[in-house]
Each structure stands twice: as C-alpha cells, then as structure tokens.
Design brief:
Length: 113
Amino acid sequence: MKRRHLLAIRTFRTFSSVWCAAALLAGLSVARAEEKSQGNARWPLVYADDFESGSMEDWEPTDPKAWRIGNEIGNHFYSLFRGSQYRPPVRSPKNRSLLKSVIVGSFRMDVRL
C-alpha cells in the first residue's frame, strides 16, 4: 500500500513538473510573438491599395485578361475571375499579378478580406 502511494506521489510530481515547464514555455513563446509583432510595427508602409480608383496600372499580371477590378456592395477588389492562358516555363503559380513599382526583401503583408 505504501509503495503505491509513493508511486502516485512521484507520478504527480513528474506530471506537475512537465505541466509547469510546458506552461512556462508557452508563456515565453507568447511573449516573443508579441515582441516580434511590436518590432514589425516599426516597418514603414511601402504600398497600400484599396482598388477604389478602379485602376490596375500598378499591377503586372501574367494574363491581364484574367484579372479585373470587381465591385460588390460598394467595395472594390482585385479579382482573378477566370482561367489564364499563361503557361509558365517551369512549375509555378499559373495566375499571378506582381506589384510593378515595389521591390522588397523581408516584409509583413496585412490583408483585410
């Protein structure tokens, strides 16, 4: 009886130690994520577009006939609305549209859908 009791105490202590360590690591990772998030807030805004102008001149699509500015309930959006005739020379996205005027390295992209 005494032996089972000691085993239960050891198991509980081990479980408690593991749980505390996991909670501590989770807390540290949350703190680091917040720290990184605040660090990214200092990055300058390089480009913004709400497509309300109806213009696609800043964008370079692989197949311009497959892209358009859509409008739904007063909100404008850049839309890939049909399949593309573009065939890439290597395996890559078949439909893409790149921003013409901006070249970046590491960046953060915030998108509101």
